[in-house]
Amino acid sequence: MPKERLQQKYNISCDFLFYNGLMAAIPRSWLVKIQASNVTEITILNRIPTLSVMVRNKMVDIRRATCSQLYRSEIDNIVKRPTCYFKWESEY
């Protein structure tokens, strides 16, 4: 949503730094999923789309997911074991 429309829709005032930070906070995988949904069809049928996200190996409607669930899911996607972990495990 463009900055002007966001300000008008939610009756807020924000500068471009806040807007860019807000846009950068949306994970790329979500943006791809949102852009892949057929927005014109949704507008014509006048219904709200169902977008699901994977949380703890379950598909959850994004409107029903809590912030902590989404945060934990994103952290789980980034966190990897250190390369030395397996060596330490085998030796000690």
Fold and architecture overview:
With 92 residues, the protein is mainly alpha-helical. It has 2 domains: 49 residues, no CATH class; 42 residues, no CATH class. Helices cover 57% and strands 9% of the residues. The protein is built from 6 helices and 2 strands, in the order H-H-H-H-E-E-H-H. Strands 1-2 form a two-stranded antiparallel sheet. The longest helix has 12 residues. The protein is elongated and about 60 Å long. About 5% of the residues have low confidence.
The largest pleated sheet is described as: 2 strands, antiparallel
In the sheet with the most strands, the strands line up as 1-2
Question: H/E order of the elements?
Answer: HHHHEEHH
Provide a count of the helices: 6
Oligomer: single chain
User: What is the structural class?
Assistant: mainly alpha
Overall pLDDT metric: 78
How large is the radius of gyration?
19 Å
Helix content: 55-70%
Tally of structural domains: 2
Principal-axis shape: elongated
Q: Assess the beta-strand content as a share of residues.
A: 5-15%
**Tally of extended strands?**
2
Low-confidence stretches: 40-44
Distance from first to last alpha carbon: 53 Å
List keywords for this structure.
2 domains; two-stranded antiparallel ribbon; 6 helices; elongated
Furnish the topology, listing elements before pairings.
Blueprint: H1 3-10, H2 16-24, H3 28-36, H4 39-45, E1 52-55, E2 58-61, H5 67-78, H6 85-91
Antiparallel strand pairs: 1-2
A few lines on this structure:
With 92 residues, the protein is mostly helical. The chain contains six helices and two strands. The radius of gyration is 19 Å and the shape is elongated.
